[in-house]
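Q: what does this look like with 1,3-dihydroxyacetonephosphate bound?
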Amino acid sequence: MRKKIVAGNWKMNLTFDEGQKLTTEIVNMYKDENIKDVTVVLNPPFVHLFPVKKLVGDTPNLFLGGQNCSDKASGAFTGETSAPMLKSFGATYVIIGHSERREYFNESNELLTAKVKQALENGLTPIFCCGEPLEIREAGTHEDYVKNQLTESLFGLSDEDFAKIVIAYEPIWAIGTGKTASSDQAQEMHKALRDHLASKYGQEAADNTSILYGGSCNPGNAKDIFSKADVDGGLIGGASLKSRDFVDIIKSF
Ligand code: 13P
């Protein structure tokens, strides 16, 4: 059975003290409010990983992830962070191919294939992001566009490696805009993606793949979005920076 997952992507936000405060609040609420059956992943900036890990400790179902990793294992690549480093600092997940990485850092589907490989070789679960810009949605070609992102970056994986992937569908027009996709739009795309995955890896593998929705998710809309059959959780940006909002989203299943 596929996992329900809520991941918080802090993006490039929060100082050391702010990160510590947020994490402490989330961990306390998480324990006090007896949350069960949801995998929670905190994805802070790299420099927060170690101190955040110390606060999270061995809290069941609460994990750490990077927001990106290098496509190389090590070497003279100033400013980069490798998958083995993430692993060694306690991360077990890594976001790969976020639309902001694709857009501002020119990350291609081909480069993302190499990053996914690095993550998998080092025992990290990739949260692989996909999603269309507004003009593609308006042209009505969004399903093909997003399916192609999966085909080009993931369809070279073996069955065994594919089984370790988490997908996050994040329509670019809904990210940070306050304009969320409707739950029906999310369901329609998630179903199309699951069918696409089934065409390559079989129905059982597709049914076991968690597909998260991301884009202006908040405590007010999460319940509706998460109630859809093919939506298995969320990748949360802005609302993951507020402990109460983030924990309320986790409790929205
Ligand atoms: P918002 O929740 O701020 O729209 O961001 C979504 C996102 O990009 C998560 O990766």
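The mean pLDDT is 97. Residues 5-250 form a domain with the TIM Barrel fold (CATH 3.20.20.70).
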